[in-house]
Design brief:
heterodimer; A: alpha+beta; 7-stranded mixed β-sheet; 4-stranded mixed β-sheet; B: 12 helices
Chain lengths: 548, 308
């Protein structure tokens, strides 16, 4: 408990320090030498074709998500190092009971079309996203808000032939515009982490112009309120962005033009990066990681950063064979994570030691005691569970590079527990996910989790609480649910984190999933740019980029 | 001749409906719910799935889906991708690049392949013949992506003579390297086909007669020998053109060319039946027409062939 509180305080101070550093940083560059080049500079970064139009609440994939993140600034922003969020468009977010939030926004920020960002731009945008006939991919993010059930209905029997009933209302009763710069959000139940969520792209404001055209039209020519504005989009070729000169928050960009060039193969982008025609590649290809080839190719242009992503093995708790916690513990303890990280990932992954990413505020180091490699304890736990009969199959999707580490994991369990284990690939991610979504997995399966917003809550609520959006294994534990609920209802973030730490202790005993690796990202920059930093999700921080 | 062409064109109609239905059915039968993997590691909200299912008629039987699609297609509406883009725009953006690449590859393979074939066919068993034999064997054995990566690394990254990837839209100059890579295997086949054909006809009666008549060697080879030896080569080039027009997933990927192969691949993976079929419709037409063209060329090359 104590550790968690301290971590919260530390994170907060770092965040404040960062804001200060951010300000002074940009001041320096304005007067610094070489700023002339930077001020008119243009860079090219890699990307993939966005799958859908660029509307924040409808974008869940990384290709479009990255551009949405550049184009929009939310109420709060997340510092690059993963600390607690700081206010961006929001002036202040007040609450007395964690249930009713009064949000005051800065009065003078502007959309790219010149209109002022007002409270109603947030309220309208959220109502649009939550209204189920609009079919927004991020619609469920608003389920905390009072009145969500009235605007969001679902087809009662999954899909067809019956249609979802028409929602009762078009707007959520929990959203109230007070005046141009203030609005009030009432939640269904107290939720202490709500302000942290507000930096996620689903919560971005939409300009009035959005509502006077179709979403498709808007998605092709988006108007945001971020440090860069949209110029043009040539499908499968590039998206051009340019500096928004009226932007008045901390993360102004110093360069002028940004081109996001679409690549279908990361190797093509990598060759462009090495030969100097590309200025930033977010993740160098797997083929260049072997033997640290990418470091040899790039030298001091290589950037390594931890991202808030963990690789996890999911367990189908709905399958009778996996309902014994001792068995799950035995499997987790029998995996030699460090060896797999060394041999297969060339240390681009770190063996997991806790249930959440270190980049999440509220995280506790080493709180995963079952993440240790301890063959003796594993065997003892297996005995306590009464052994395991039959074959244990580890499933992965074969259309990405998971075969090697899943097979190594299977081998590790087999050797150390003496049970029959093998790994099996499922051809495509779609079929793989469908089996998981339908709760029909017949063995342990690979999963990955990237936090939506930086807080340890995001590593518990969706994954291990009964009914959580990604609780695919249908794990359910009354105590975890109770502690989680107490945490979300806590009057302050620190008290919430303390409750989450308690919940994690029970999770650590129950082992609803098996944390495997913390993921690091290997990026590269060209020799034209300098000072490049990556954000808390590993995207390029455009405000940090300067030309040499 | 006119009737023959008309008959061939009429044959296109059943082939067109047959192929499009088959393709539509195959994409539909690919296992996996199109929206299962769409939202990453979590299921998509049901409201989104409902919205998309209704918009794209995915809950209707396959026949109804195909019928609706065909009705729109015959009215010139190719439909939309799941991402909301017009499929016709997608094709008109990507197809010119594929055609350019196909033309460059075809010219490279025809010029180099034919030259090598004719030279070695006339002077068999010499040094040049053996050299071509070995190098074509090497080219056929080398997978296309190996050659692609190697050339890209050497010429693009290490030597810096060309850019590793093309700009968009690519210029013909930029497509020389990708075109060479794409045409490399066919180039080798053409060289061997031409060599065998020339060598065989070299010993035939009409060539001997032509030489005996005292015709200059240039005319014997250029008119009599070459024209008759070209038939298998033209057949090959014709089908190859059809194949090249169908896009080149690997080559387009390596050199980041925004071509049709990549679009088909993406659409198959995301189970977008309408996109796959729309592109394939065009590919089928191109393939059939290029085959017809080849058949007509036969008549021009060989006076013995007549179409009724």
């Amino acid at each position: 408990m104590r550790v968690s509180k301290r971590a919260g305080v530390v994170a907060l101070t770092t965040a404040v320090a960062l804001v200060a550093a951010g300000c002074s940083g940009s001041d320096d560059s304005d007067t610094g030498k070489g700023s002339g080049d930077t001020a008119n500079g243009a860079i090219t970064i890699d990307g993939t074709q966005p799958e859908v139009g660029l509307i924040p609440a409808n974008t869940t994939e990384t290709g479009g998500g990255k551009i949405v993140d550049f184009l929009w600034t939310g109420l709060v922003q997340y510092p690059n190092d993963g600390g607690a969020p700081k206010n961006a468009v929001a002036q202040e977010i007040k609450t007395t009971d964690s249930k009713v939030y009064t949000i005051k926004i800065k009065p003078d920020t502007k959309f790219h079309d010149g209109t002022v960002v007002k409270a109603k731009n947030f309220v309208d945008a959220w109502n649009w996203a939550a209204y189920s006939p609009n079919g927004a991919q991020n619609g469920s993010f608003f389920s905390d808000i009072a009145g969500f059930a009235d605007v969001h209905t679902e087809d009662p029997d999954g899909d067809g032939p019956k249609k979802a009933p028409e929602p009762k209302a078009k707007t959520m009763s929990g959203l109230k515009v007070v005046d141009d710069t203030t609005f009030e959000v009432t939640l269904n139940a107290p939720f202490s982490i709500f302000p942290t969520k507000l930096g996620y792209s689903a919560f971005m404001p939409l300009p009035d112009a959005f509502f006077s055209q179709t979403p498709e039209e808007f998605g092709k020519k988006p108007i945001g309120n971020g440090p860069v504005k949209f110029v043009s989009w040539q499908d499968n070729v590039e998206v051009k962005l340019t500096r928004f000169d009226d932007y008045n928050l901390d993360d102004k960009v110093k360069i002028k033009d940004v081109t996001v060039k679409m690549y279908q193969e990361d190797t093509a982008a990598y060759n462009d990066l090495v030969s100097g025609t590309l200025d930033f590649q977010q993740q160098v290809p797997v083929s260049s990681l072997a033997g640290d080839k990418w470091k040899a190719d790039l030298g001091d242009r290589a950037i390594e950063a931890q991202i808030p992503v963990m690789q996890i093995l999911g367990i189908p708790i709905y399958d009778k064979r996996f309902q014994n916690a001792n068995l799950r513990k035995a499997i987790s303890l029998s995996i030699n994570r460090q060896e797999i990280a060394d041999k297969i990932f060339f240390n681009t992954r770190k063996a997991a030691t806790s249930w959440s990413s270190p980049l999440a505020p509220g995280h506790t180091d080493n709180d995963c005691t079952v993440c240790k490699f301890d063959p003796a304890a594993a065997k003892a736990a297996l005995q306590a569970a009464g052994g395991f009969t039959g074959e244990l199959v580890l499933y992965y999707n074969a259309d990405a590079s998971h075969k090697e580490w899943m097979e190594a994991t299977a081998q590790s369990i087999k050797t150390n527990l003496g049970i029959n284990v093998r790994a099996e690939g499922i051809p495509t991610f779609a079929v793989f996910r469908q089996t998981i979504n339908d709760h029909k997995m017949k063995g342990i399966y690979r999963a990955g989790w990237q936090q939506d917003y930086p807080d340890v809550e995001n590593w518990i609520g969706p994954l291990y609480v009964t009914g959580g959006s990604s609780n695919d294994g249908l794990f359910s534990n009354g105590q975890v649910d109770k502690l989680y609920k107490e945490g979300t209802a806590a009057p302050s973030v620190d008290e919430a984190h303390a409750k989450f730490a308690d919940a994690t202790k029970i999770i650590d005993q129950e082992v609803p999933a098996i944390p495997m690796f913390e993921v690091t990202q290997q990026s590269g920059v060209s020799d034209r740019v300098t000072g490049v930093k990556t954000t808390n999700v590993g995207e390029i921080d455009l405000s940090s980029v300067q030309l040499k | 001749m006119g009737r023959y062409v008309l008959r061939r064109l009429l044959q296109l109609i059943p082939v067109f409906f047959g192929t499009t239905f088959l393709i539509y059915y195959l994409v539909w039968a690919v296992p996996g719910d199109p929206f299962a993997g769409k939202c990453g590691e979590r299921p998509c909200p049901q409201s989104y799935v409902d919205f998309m299912t209704e918009k794209f008629n995915l809950d209707k039987p396959i026949i109804v889906q195909y019928g609706t699609y065909m009705k729109n297609l015959l009215q010139g509406d190719f439909g939309q991708t799941f991402g909301g883009r017009q499929i016709s725009d997608l094709i008109s953006d990507a197809y010119p690049n594929t055609i350019k690449l196909a033309i460059v590859a075809l010219i490279i393979e025809a010029v180099i392949g034919l030259t090598a074939g004719v030279l070695t066919g006339l002077r068999r068993n010499g040094f040049l013949d053996n050299l071509v034999l070995v190098s074509t064997l090497f080219m056929i054995a080398l997978p296309i992506f190996v050659l692609g990566f190697l050339l890209q690394k050497w010429l693009g990254v290490d030597l810096g003579i060309v850019k590793p990837t093309v700009s968009n839209p690519p210029s013909f100059g930029e497509l020389l390297m990708p075109g060479f890579v794409l045409g490399s295997a066919s180039m080798a086949y053409i060289a061997r086909l031409a060599r065998t054909s020339i060598a065989e006809n070299r010993r035939s009666d009409y060539v001997r007669t032509a030489i005996a008549k005292g015709l200059p060697m240039k005319r014997v080879v250029g008119v009599h020998l070459l024209r008759n030896s070209l038939i298998p080569v033209v057949t090959y080039l014709g089908t190859d053109l059809g194949a090249l027009m169908g896009g080149a997933i690997v080559t387009e990927g390596i050199f980041n060319i925004n071509g049709i192969g990549r679009q088909v691949y993406r659409a198959i993976v995301t189970k977008e039946g309408a996109t796959v079929v729309s592109i394939v419709v065009i590919l089928v037409l191109v393939y059939l027409l290029s085959n017809l063209l080849v058949d007509l060329l036969y008549a021009a090359l060989d006076p013995r062939i007549r179409y009724e």
